[in-house]
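Database export, one record per block. Field names are fixed; values are copied verbatim from the stored entry.
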Amino acid sequence: MGFSRRFFRYLVVGVASLWLMIGIKACASPTTQQPSTESQSATTSTEVASNPIGAKKININTAILSELDKLEAQLAVPALSHKIQASRPYGSTEELVSKNVVSQAQFDQIKDQLTIEEIVLTGEAKDIDYMTKLGLMKGHMIVAGELLTLQKPEQAEPHLGHPVEEIYVDLEEQLSDRNVTPFKDVLTRVQDLVKSKPNDPQIKTEYEAAMTAIDQAIAALPDTQRTNPNFVLPVINGMLETATSEYTAAITDGKVKEAIEYQDSRGFVAYAQDELYKSIEPQITKADATAHTQMTAAFKQLRSAWPEPIPPTTPVMTPDQVAASVKQIEQAGTPVVKASAS
């Protein structure tokens, strides 16, 4: 999947990869729905803070790339995410078949995961969504920085573009609500500079400015929240689930065919462990030393899938092995979240 494909697939940015919380927030309260009218083609539901996800499905009208990639990986249909977005809008999930996006047999495999409902997040769910999207930005920027260090500006440039072209538009309203200074121009500057003057020494300064701007947006969340395992672990789970989807999309016939997706997933995992998990490590260790040991071991195994920013021809781990390591991390953290929530 090249950059142009990713650009089209991210035209509409939706709710980022929070469904993994379903096993963590076991004590969630029911989702409330706003009344529908005959003129509406889709129902709008409101997710309350105590039930950030509920039985969340993938909205085929608004889903972010990482959500649609789950369907692509499950059905093993190349470019399915792009095909879904290219045929929007949908009046019903069944239109995936009538618009020849998938076959009836393929639709039957995924139909229970699909919806056209618009999900409106509130409370903690909205904060988790906000933090997850900013985390995805940081993951893109991290791997871009590695590639710039390796003097691979042509490979770094797409990753510098992803935060502003794929994610920022979905955060603009939240940035305003949280009194965060807009930083779209900061993100654009570094991408444009790498594209037009790849050897300019000013790139380092602009890159650091972009990273600082994202960090300032993250700092809009209270420090107590950003160091609370009950909040951070679901964000980690969302980041890692996204990484799994991207890693799966990178591999075809046992070979790493899509460097961008491989690199994206590397950046997401790096941020999840090196920054997110590090922020709660003392609390995890104190609350459950066994959980910390298990998560650390699973992270170590997971990180081995990305030995270098430049992908190997043959993957070190299969997508199933990556998914298994991610599941181990989620399962190890679940008791900690339940304990802190009780």
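Remark 1: Confidence is low (pLDDT under 50) at residues 1-55.
Remark 2: The two ends are 44 Å apart (CA to CA).
End of record.
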